[in-house]
Specification:
The complex is a heterodimer of chains A (91) and B (1002). Chain A is built from 1 helix and 6 strands. Chain A has 91 residues and is mainly β. In chain A, strand 1 and strand 2 form a beta hairpin. Chain A is globular, with a radius of gyration of 14 Å. Chain B folds into 6 domains: 119 residues, 2Fe-2S iron-sulphur cluster binding domain, sarcosine oxidase, alpha subunit, N-terminal domain (Ubiquitin-like (UB roll), Roll); 198 residues, FAD/NAD(P)-binding domain, CATH 3.50.50.60; 142 residues, FAD/NAD(P)-binding domain; 73 residues, Arc Repressor Mutant, subunit A; 91 residues, Alpha-Beta Plaits; 96 residues, Elongation Factor Tu (Ef-tu), domain 3 (Beta Barrel), CATH 2.40.30. In chain B, the strands form 13 sheets. In chain B, strands 8, 9, 12, 13, 14, 15 and 28 form a 7-stranded mixed sheet that branches. In chain B, strands 41-42-43-40-34-44 form a 6-stranded mixed sheet. A 6-stranded antiparallel sheet of chain B has the order 46-47-48-45-50-49. Classes of the chains: A mainly beta (91), B alpha+beta (1002). Chains A and B meet through helix 1 of A and helix 21 of B. The complex binds zinc ion.
Chain lengths: 91, 1002
């Protein structure tokens, strides 16, 4: 059980948060213009990396804000936390 | 039986306080400070149980949590009895009653012992090989296993004890109160760090606290005296918390640890009253020091499991700490110097040590020299090849080892003894280290896995024996040196201690000791609890198992409640030897939490009974209780299910309620529906994007039904939303979906559409909702609010008005989930019960009938209205539900729109919602029942029933179902095959009642 540094509240226990899956997958602005394959790519395809992964997290039992987390899925080490709309601070 | 097994020299046991207890019904005595094991041994009782598979007699083998044999049942109260308790850990208290577990009818006469003679038939993988086939025999095997393989009895009544959870935070957590843990805690606390020291025993000091021989000295004091002084000083440091009788069960990432604190298990029944039994500590530590020590290894030779064979260090503890002689005529068998310490202690206490068998050729050290002076015989380069004695060891056979250790030579000599101490070296307790993600490295010279300092998770350190230091000077010097770096300390007083101790000169290790007999005729036990032998491991390897994880499961080695703490290393060693692999490359099996078993009570704490989950009650709940409602759990809510009158059954009550709602008036507490207040200048645009239909043109004061999809196009939730003002809406959701809908909407607002100026607030609890329906509903509302214009022109269906009931503000919506003319009154929750009672009072002359969820479901089914989550399951599109009318065709986008014309969602043979009528109108279908076209095999399943009721208003059975290509099948006959009959049904429209919606305005 890790500790997440919410950009709005500070360090809190993992039990206060929920994970929203891979980050930086933008909802297409013009879905009707997409082929089935392009829409399916947005809808279904996720990376599930062993190692450094960019994720969305929600402080659901706290400030309820969404933000991004860079987490190493192999050891749960969190390398960075940043707000929605911001660029990842690391590659 | 001898009475002089207790010596009278030590200060750890209070021999002035006699404690009576019972073991297997026999009344015995011990003293304050005893464990059950030490008290049994003082009563000359070694035999405490039978082994799992062969039912061999087994005795107390250790003095700690690694005990494989002395696993007992404590107490016989059906609510309080505790199985699988280790006799070596439980402290003696007045009235303790303990029983052997794994024996029937008694520990001395055990029918299962016949397995011992059948043992050639019970080799490795026996369970897999025998019980796998044929499957139909399983019942018989299960009976056999359950009866002969006792693993204790579960309590049959609810646990009456109290358990607690506590969150704990500290700068430094030190696990283990031996000498290295004490030094670490002292250094940490003296630096001013908030420190917690945890130890599983009732006292501190580990094995050093009873090491009183003058070979071991620190600053000219014997090591026990020196340590005792340190502990006294330690106890006075204010920023240090000591938790005794506390065992760390799990070490997770980010220094999150779980520990169980035993608070009353050492007290007599009347001392326990009203106290919390165990507390689960949830600890977050900035830094963790693992000082969990090491446990002694046994030696693996034939018949090494007889009662009376005890780890040599345990014999030392029984004599030095508890003052208990484990025998009158003890021999020792070792591959290292530890057994000599035991011999010195026994010799001092006047216990005869006949012979020390040492597999090493030249083990000279200060310890062995001291022993030689006493005249105790030492056989160097010898091994034990066999033992004798059924319920207690009687003798050992000793032979000379060949130079390479692979065989025995010369003549066999037999020595009589009533106790044999064995020592195969030491295994560092690295369980918690590996649980936390640390990786081990193998040290070849003494065959131990120790923490790899380069692969240790940050902010933790292992010290002392758990880090592979076994001799006093190494333990102290390395602990002080490493803690200094770990905590960033300055020079301290422990850096230049004058330490004297014995140093081991020679090492020799043989994992499986040879015998003069063929291995097939020997019984060298590896896992004492699960009865697996070295032979089983070798057999598994011959049969092709290579991975240690597979060998472990196939032979069940290390799979008992002790998790193989004693002999995992030997199993690995034998695998390595047999396959010619290096142990370091082989690795270890995985250590999983908990380190020692946890009670369910400690795990759940106070979260039992009514505290198991939150219970949500509406503001009108008390009225429902007073009026004898039966309740249904809907998520965390308690909702009235139906209101039985005069002993009605549920069926009768629901039929009456459903009829009354359509004939005159019904009233429903709908407060549990989710309510989200939506405000902001972009509120209309927001609703446009989240619902499938159009919202921009909804006039203020109007209501609209909306369907919400997931991006995959599947129906997610539904409800009515009302426009209260230009930029103000109130959305209702399903009861179960309320929290998730809010989260989903917040997600879109924050991450996809941050440009929208919209604010969401949940007001589910703040407003209560009562729905009055039926042809007389208008008259009832008129009575309550005479000033309100209820004409269809002023207040049409799907509209809303602000009003007042006396001084109470209320929102009244004219919306309907029953198809009847109906009103929904929303008031601030603290007025809800009064308003509800006003409605009931006003409705009396119209026989207003309170109804619950069941009638609500029936009434809406008559109208073919769906319930998301009952008629839908996340695989149905609006079109599948025959609700194409609700798709805003002209809308450019909404959540899920693009998915509505994917190749899969436009298939015509998708499952689609239909109505069903049974050929026999009295026959009510079962929800979930399958629908088929013909009974000819193979039978093709076409769909299933989602809702089914007997409609009192139509006087026939009705049902909703999802059926493949259902939209095209109207009028088609299908079959619902049940266990003892086949029911004929016809596919119909989904609307059964008032197809023209005339009643809405009736
Ligand atoms: Zn937050």
């Amino acid at each position: 059980m890790f500790i997440i540094n919410c950009p709005y509240c500070g360090e809190r226990d993992q039990t206060e948060f929920s994970c929203g899956g891979e980050a930086h997958i933008e909802r297409p602005k013009q879905p009707t213009e997409l082929s089935d394959d392009q829409w399916a790519e947005y809808l279904f395809m996720r990376k599930n990396i062993k190692g450094i992964q960019f994720e969305r997290w929600n402080h659901i039992h706290g400030c309820r804000k969404w933000f991004n987390v860079v987490r190493d899925t192999s050891n749960d080490k969190i390398h960075a936390v940043y707000k929605m709309g911001e660029r990842p601070p690391i590659k | 039986m001898s009475n002089n097994l207790r010596i009278n020299k030590n200060n750890f046991i209070d021999q002035t306080v006699r404690i009576s207890f019972k073991f297997n019904g026999k009344k015995l005595f011990g003293y304050k400070g005893d464990t059950l094991a030490s008290a049994l041994l003082a009563n000359n009782i070694h035999l405490v149980g039978r082994s799992f598979k062969y039912h061999r007699p087994r005795g107390i083998m250790t003095c700690g949590s690694e005990e494989p044999n002395a696993i007992i049942q404590v107490g016989k109260d059906p609510a309080l009895t505790d199985p699988n308790v280790r006799a070596t850990e439980i402290e003696l208290y007045e009235g303790l009653e303990a029983f052997s577990q794994n024996c029937w009818p008694s520990v001395n006469f055990d029918i299962g012992g016949i397995n011992n003679f059948l043992s050639p038939l019970l080799p490795a993988g026996f369970y897999y090989k025998t019980f796998m086939w044929p499957a139909s025999f399983w019942e018989k095997y299960e009976f056999f296993i359950r009866h002969s393989a006792g693993l204790g009895k579960s309590p049959t009544k609810p646990d009456q004890d109290l358990y607690d959870h506590q969150y704990v935070h500290c700068d430094v957590l030190v696990i283990g109160g031996g000498i290295s843990g004490i030094l670490s805690a002292k250094l940490s606390a003296e630096k001013g760090l908030n420190t917690i020291l945890i130890d599983d025993k009732s006292y501190l000091g580990g094995s050093t606290i009873y090491q009183d021989d003058d070979i071991f000295k620190i600053n000219n004091e014997t090591s026990n005296v020196w340590l005792k002084n340190q502990i006294e000083k330690l106890k006075r440091i204010p920023n240090l918390t000591i938790k005794n009788r506390t065992s760390v069960a799990a070490f997770h990432g980010y220094n999150y640890l779980l520990a169980r604190e035993n608070l009353t298990d050492h007290l007599s029944a009347h001392e326990r009253k009203g106290k919390i039994r165990q507390r689960l500590l949830k600890i977050r530590a900035k830094k963790v020091v693992i000082a969990t020590g090491a446990i002694e290894r046994p030696l693996i030779f034939s018949n090494n499991d007889r009662p009376g064979i005890i780890l040599s260090s345990s014999i030392k503890k029984y004599i030095d700490y508890y003052g208990v002689k484990t025998g009158e005529n003890i021999s020792l068998f070792t591959n290292n110097d530890s057994a000599y310490e035991t011999a010195i202690s026994l010799n001092k206490s006047g216990v005869k040590v006949k012979v020390i068998i040492d597999i090493r050729e030249n083990p000279s050290s200060i310890l062995s020299e001291k022993i030689e002076k006493t005249g105790i015989k030492i056989l160097r380069g010898y091994t034990i090849t066999n033992t004798d004695g059924y319920k207690r060891i009687k003798s050992i056979d000793v032979m000379k080892l060949s130079k390479d250790g692979g065989s025995v030579i010369g003549k066999k000599v037999t020595y009589k003894c009533d106790c044999l101490g064995i020592s195969g070296g030491w295994t560092p307790m690295v369980h918690l280290f590996t649980q936390s993600g640390g990786k081990l490295k193998f040290r070849n010279n003494d065959n131990v896995f120790i923490p790899d300092e380069n692969k240790t998770p940050s902010e933790q350190i292992s010290v002392g024996s758990s880090n592979g230091d076994f001799e006093l000077d190494d333990v102290i010097n390395n602990t002080v040196k490493n803690i200094k770096i770990f905590l960033g300390l300055d020079k301290n007083k422990y850096e230049n201690l004058d330490i004297k101790c014995s140093k081991e000169k020679q090492k020799r290790n043989i994992w499986l000791l040879p015998s003069n007999e063929a291995i097939s005729k020997t019984k060298p036990f590896l896992d004492f609890q699960n009865d697996s032998t070295a032979k089983d491991v070798k057999l598994a390897l011959r049969e092709g198992f290579k991975s240690i994880e597979h060998v472990k499961r196939y032979t069940t080695t290390g799979m008992g409640t002790d998790q193989g703490k004693l002999s995992n290393m030997h199993a690995l060693g034998i695998i390595a030897d047999t396959t010619g692999t290096n142990m370091g490359e082989l690795g270890t099996t995985t250590f999983r939490p908990p380190y020692t078993p946890l009670t369910f009570g400690a795990i759940v704490g106070r979260n039992v009974g009514e505290f198991f989950d939150h219970t949500r009650r509406t503001a009108i709940h008390d009225w429902h209780v007073e009026n004898k409602a039966e309740f249904e759990n809907v998520g965390q809510w308690k909702r009235p299910w139906y209101f039985p009158k005069n002993g009605e059954t549920m069926y009768e009550a629901v039929q009456r309620e459903s009829k009354a709602a359509r004939v005159s008036a019904g009233i429903l507490d709908a407060s549990t529906l989710g309510k989200i207040d939506i405000q902001g200048e972009d509120a209309s645009e927001f609703l446009n994007r989240v619902y499938t239909n159009a919202w921009s043109k909804l006039a203020i004061g109007k209501c609209r039904y909306g369907l919400m999809l997931n991006e995959d196009g599947m129906v997610y939730d539904d409800g009515v939303t009302t426009r209260l003002g230009e930029n103000h809406y109130i959305m209702t959701t399903t009861t179960g979906g309320a929290a998730n809908v809010l989260s989903k909407l917040e997600d879109y607002l924050q991450t996809e559409w941050p440009e929208l100026n919209v604010y969401l607030t949940t007001v589910t609890d703040q407003y209560s909702t009562m729905s009055i329906c039926g042809p007389n509903s208008k008259k009832i509302i008129k009575k309550i609010i005479p000033s309100l214009d209820l004409s269809d022109e002023s207040f049409p269906h799907m509209s809303f008005k602000n009003s007042k009931i006396d001084n109470v503000n209320c929102r009244i919506m004219r919306i309907s989930f029953t198809g009847e003319h109906s009103y929904e009154i929303n008031v601030q929750s603290n007025y809800a019960k009064d308003v509800w009672e006003r409605c009931i009072e006003a409705g009396k002359e119209f026989n207003i009938t309170p109804y619950g969820t069941e009638t609500m479901h029936l009434l809406r089914a008559e109208k073919g209205f769906i319930i998301t989550g009952q008629d839908t399951d996340g695989t149905l599109t609006p079109s599948d539900l025959q609700m194409d009318w609700i798709i805003g065709k002209k809308k450019y986008d909404f959540i899920g729109k693009r998915s509505l014309y994917r190749s899969d969602t436009i298939r015509e043979d998708r499952k689609q919602l239909v109505g069903l009528l049974t050929d026999d109108p009295k026959e009510v279908l079962e929800e979930g029942a399958q629908l088929v076209e013909s009974l000819e095999k193979p039978i093709d399943m076409l769909g299933h029933v989602t809702s089914s009721y007997f409609s009192p208003n139509l006087n026939k059975s009705i049902a909703l179902a999802v059926v493949r290509s259902g939209k095209k099948l109207k009028g088609k006959k299908l079959i619902v095959p049940m266990e003892n009959k086949n029911i004929n049904v016809t596919i119909t429209d989904t609307v059964f009642y008032d197809k023209e919606n005339k009643r809405l305005n009736a």
